[in-house]
User: What shape does this take?
Amino acid sequence: MKKILNHPDDFVDESISGILLAHSNFLTPVEGEPRAIIRKDAPVQGKVAIATGGGYGHLPVFLGYVGEGMADGVSVGNVFTSPSADAMFEVTKAIDGGAGVLYLYGNYFGDKMNFDYAAELAADEGIRVETVRVSDDVASAPFESKDKRRGVAGLFFVYKIAGACAEAGASLDEVKRVAEQALESVRTMGVGLAPCIIPASGKPTFEIGADEVELGIGIHGEPGIQKQQLATANEIIAQLLEHLVSDLNVKSGDEVCVLVNGTGSTPLEELYIAYKEVHEWLAKKGIQIYRPFVGEYATSLEMAGLSLSLLKMNDSLKPFMDAPARTPFIRL
Amino acid sequence: MKKILNHPDDFVDESISGILLAHSNFLTPVEGEPRAIIRKDAPVQGKVAIATGGGYGHLPVFLGYVGEGMADGVSVGNVFTSPSADAMFEVTKAIDGGAGVLYLYGNYFGDKMNFDYAAELAADEGIRVETVRVSDDVASAPFESKDKRRGVAGLFFVYKIAGACAEAGASLDEVKRVAEQALESVRTMGVGLAPCIIPASGKPTFEIGADEVELGIGIHGEPGIQKQQLATANEIIAQLLEHLVSDLNVKSGDEVCVLVNGTGSTPLEELYIAYKEVHEWLAKKGIQIYRPFVGEYATSLEMAGLSLSLLKMNDSLKPFMDAPARTPFIRL
Assistant: This one.
């Protein structure tokens, strides 16, 4: 295992420590709870607060989305492991500005269990909590049971929309409604070329042949739709888009935001080749691109591959997409 | 070779095409010269223009630094290969706003030859050109012959400082003087864990053992100071800092900007572990951090490793460091 670290057991804590040292003007841990990190200016009085959280190893997901116009606080687990309900509860108390808290996170069993328990603890303290679980990965379950899908890079779009809505002063019910609208409008599918290695185990997250890719892979190496021969960028992007456009029911004349997301070790140069293919494929179908995003928005350590997300736009989402956002990792 | 591309011969052109499609509001190619890319608002009348360029495969170096407060135009070569003097000359003509042009690029033989020839062509057209070649890689030549050193991630700091100086309305002589001051104040050293593969050849840039790292590696896989056993983040960072601090003559009470740069496939999580080590090492020596940067600022496709740059600060550099900058890849 060739990684820049000290000891695998300290991987998460030392990495968070580096983030807090580098960005102490933006982020602060909750006292006594180093895995609960909040905006430096939290709680923002009168604003709906957004709490997120999940396993480590997906930067900028989740910690990187804490900042103005996005999330207010995050609980951080070990690599690919849910954080504790205690950390979630500490975040909740620290960010509540009196207008309630939205729990916004990816749809995984451990996270759901712990966030649900934290919500009970919060209710006992008189803090109103609502929940939206992002489930954008079309490869992880069929349309008929889309509530069972995993949450992947589409999280970015839901943070962006819900965060802007909260920043604009909307009520908790309204922020939840808008987050659900964003969730209904987003789909993601990925392709994996090579696994990452989890520091604590020293093991790769999946096995794959030298000339194979895994279509529909999850961000922890969960199996996708199929293993297949490595194809051209043109062919891979067409496969992903056919699934996304069909599932999201995007048609000629529609507008979408596009996210070409690198999963960790994919060069930006390759992501832009992929973006060119996306742009040309959508143009041929008469689908307009409202705004493109290309880069690393949800990673799996050094996993090689990419994911493609589409967010179907409408006039009510545009002001939230266009609003500024500023975290140590994302500036829009 | 497992990459997301169509044909290796089209790698650069298709990737640039994706960048121009995604960022057409910021960037435009010079007519008839697709490898000459300029700011959309170029030429900015009365402003000193900054031209850069070099081989492809180092994003955001070089193309990613074209934008407000940084460079005005770029000529793009094939992967790890100098662009043509023609492309450089086309950039020069397209960005000159009447106040002259600074050529600011990394110290490599091919780039020097072509930029020098482009400067002659520009002189024939009555455009004044001055040149600053960045040579920040301490591992590539001893202090006594530091003009022979290669240009690596420290380019970022020189773009930032010189770009802000030009944006503030300084003369060509003044922008050159400030760029040279930044160059005198910056040092970089890298460590390589695994090579990248050049698309056209399908070959890795260097050979390395499963438990080895190469200290002082160049951004094209040029040999460094030594191959050594993989050590802890703490030990690697101490090695790099000892070289940098000695070469730059940084002492207790001095202030530096820090850049922990990922070379392509290094997870951000590891870069922040490295940053923690940098922060603690410098604190012990009484060296203050003026501003930290952690992320991918100069890559080598999917090479694994990192580089560490220090910029010794003084009061005259601070306003240039703090000025805003905005490109499709960098927002400060």
Notes: The CA atoms of residues 196 and 303 of chain A lie 4 Å apart. Chain A has two domains: 8-185, 186-319.
